[in-house]
Amino acid sequence: MTGILSIKNLVVDFKLRAGNTRALNQVSLELMNGEILGIVGESGCGKSMTALSIMGLIPSPPGKITGGSIIFDGEELLTASKTRMRQIRGGIISMIFQQSMTSLNPVLRIGDQIAECVLLHEEVTKVEAWARAVETLTMVGIPEPEIRAWGYPHELSVGMRQRVMIAMALSCRPRVLIVDEPTAALDVTVQAQIFDLLKDLQRETGIAIIMTTHDMGAIAELADRVAVLYAGHIIETGSTRDILTNPQHPYTRGLISCVPYLGENPTEVRPYLTEIKGVMPSLTGFESGCAFAPRCPYKTPICEEVRPENEAVIGVHTAACHNLKYVAAV
Ligand SMILES: Nc1ncnc2c1ncn2[C@@H]1O[C@H](COP(=O)(O)OP(=O)(O)OP(=O)(O)O)[C@@H](O)[C@H]1O
Ligand SMILES: [Mg+2]
Q1: Is the N-terminal amide bond of 153 cis, ω within 30° of 0?
Q2: What is the pTM of this model?
Q3: I need a labelling partner for 314 at 20 to 30 A (CA). Which of 46, 140, 157, 167 fits?
């Protein structure tokens, strides 16, 4: 698989009256063509900021990208012009924003909302844009798309509205789709349907997807590969199988133990932490040591002094922990 999007050493700072907060600290990620990459971590760890950085939409001020690079298909996005970013956003890289269930316009026909996205990015007639809207509604499994396109959002169930959101994001046939917390507001049945839809879309169109979530269960369902984010740091990456069956970092182990059951054998005993005590610290970027050290049951003196780098575990599996061998043996 070849890479399509490469984030290197990304740093995002928020300058606030109360002081500086480093929301992302040297984040590096690689998105491969046609894969679903899951970014997982608890609230405030930087999932949305990672997604918004790619889109060039960090709220500024107070936020600012102060370091690193984001390269899409050979092109540096951080120095791209505003016009170029407008073309890329929605046209080539598309994002479904966190809590965007309510962002459908209640007084516009569904077909018009999707057609509007197409008209914004492509030289097409209104008739062609409408046809694309219907075609995209078909793609995302809306029944009777020709009729539904004439309807309004309130006529649809929550799950169907989520499909329309996905259709809007896909209307220009982007190469990358970013879905920020896709299922936070959905019940489990609808969640499962949305996951199936995203998997089908990936398989049928070859689109690369980044999904952010706080839920390891969602990762297990959907992602091919996972990056675990903690207080603005990537602390572990690997295939979903590696992460779920052989988690290395104490934080990842904790995240997995917060999910009732993930393996193929429900009686399997998992000797992981039963909860992650404490809260994620707010960071300024100047602290030394591992960001997880204050909560880590395995910490040793070096953890508070030296920030651990991501190191290879096996193959593409990496983790940033000074005590990998010791933790893995527990
Ligand atoms: N508007 C803002 N003003 C100040 N700081 C902010 C702002 N937005 C984000 N941050 C900082 O960036 C960090 C990461 O925020 P982000 O929204 O990316 O978290 P998240 O992982 O998406 O959380 P959630 O799961 O709650 O959506 C926060 O912990 C906070 O310190
Ligand atoms: Mg978020």
Answers
A1: no
A2: 0.92
A3: 46
Mutate to test the pocket of ligand 1, among 47, 99, 213, 255 (most ligand atoms within 8 A of CB): 47
Distance 23 CA to ligand 1 centre (A): 7
Please give the structure tokens belonging to residue 204: 């049928």
Per CATH, the number for 3-92+174-329 is 3.40.50.300
Q: What is the dihedral of CA 40, 43, 47, 48, to 10 degrees?
A: 150
Q: Residue with structure tokens 């700072």?
A: 13
CB-based contact 179:213 (threshold 8 Å): no
Pairing type for strands 225-230 and 233-239 reads antiparallel
User: Is the distance from the beta carbon of residue 49 to the nearest atom of ligand 1 less than 6 Å?
Assistant: yes
Contact 240, 223 (CB under 8 A): yes
Residue 17 is encoded by which pair of tokens? 């009256």
210-256: per-residue pLDDT in tens? 999 998 989 999 999 999 999 999 999 999 999 999 999 999 998 88
Span from the CA of 14 to the centroid of ligand 1 (angstroms): 9
Q: Which residue has the higher pLDDT, 110 or 182?
A: 110
What does each C-alpha distance from 45 to 107, 167, 174, 236, 244 come to in angstroms?
A: 36, 28, 27, 14, 20
Q: How many CA atoms lie within 13 A of 153 on its CB side?
A: 20
- Over residues 185-211, the pLDDT tens digits come to 778 888 889 999 999 999 999 999 999
Dist. CA 234 → ligand 1 center (Å) = 15
- Taking CA atoms only, the protein residue closest to ligand 1 atom 25 is 43
pLDDT in tens, 97-109: 887 766 789 999 9
Between helix 110-121 and helix 126-139 the angle, nearest 10°, is 120
pLDDT of residue 264: 55
Q: What is the dihedral of CA 168, 170, 171, 172, to 10 degrees?
A: 130
